[in-house]
Design goal:
mainly alpha, Four Helix Bundle (Hemerythrin (Met), subunit A)
């Protein structure tokens, strides 16, 4: 059952993991970020500047979130139990929430498109729903084994022992015809 919940989670995480990456490409309008040359007013020439510390932190948060998404993916491939998956989802959701807050507070400084937080929040909400399903399964524990047909009908799967031996079809005590 948990593996069914991890299937959509894996697809969602693939999408979510891909979402933060465009953030780096969108940093191109800021000096020192990919796609931009040197200092302002230099026409793109000169030594490239490092991105501001806040933008560097966003990149680190993106990498951390990606690492957590990869851990969920690996656990899904290994068919990990719901308890393991729940812990991984909680870690992922915490890192993603931290990254979304960082993006919202540094959206202009780092040249991030204004609609990026909206898309990330939508993906985060979907991940929260999947995590709830997985964690609910972990809270319930292993599903009890389903009863067999004889257990469901309330009958014994064995034949009653009447104590009589030697019938025409009794092959456990030898050939009845040879007696």
């Amino acid at each position: 059952m948990v593996h069914r919940a991890l299937g959509p989670a894996l697809a969602l995480l693939t999408i979510l993991a891909a979402m933060p990456r465009p953030v780096v490409a969108q940093f191109g309008g800021m000096p020192g970020m990919p796609g931009m040359g040197g200092a302002p007013g230099m026409g793109g020439f000169g030594a490239p500047q490092a991105p501001p510390p806040a933008c560097q932190q966003l990149l680190a948060m993106r990498d951390e979130t990606q690492k957590n998404a990869d851990a969920i993916h690996k656990a899904s491939e290994k068919k990990a139990g719901p308890d393991v998956a729940c812990k991984l989802f909680k870690t992922f959701l915490a890192s993603e929430a931290k990254m979304i807050k960082g993006i919202e507070s540094n959206i202009q400084l780092c040249g991030i498109p204004p609609d990026m937080p909206k898309f990330m929040k939508a993906g985060h909400a979907k991940a929260q729903q999947i995590a709830k399903t997985v964690c609910d399964a972990a809270d319930r524990g292993a599903a009890p084994p389903t009863p067999s047909l004889s257990e469901a009908l309330g009958v014994s799967p064995t034949m009653p022992d009447t104590g009589k031996r030697g019938g025409a079809f009794d092959t456990l005590t030898g050939n009845a015809l040879a007696r």
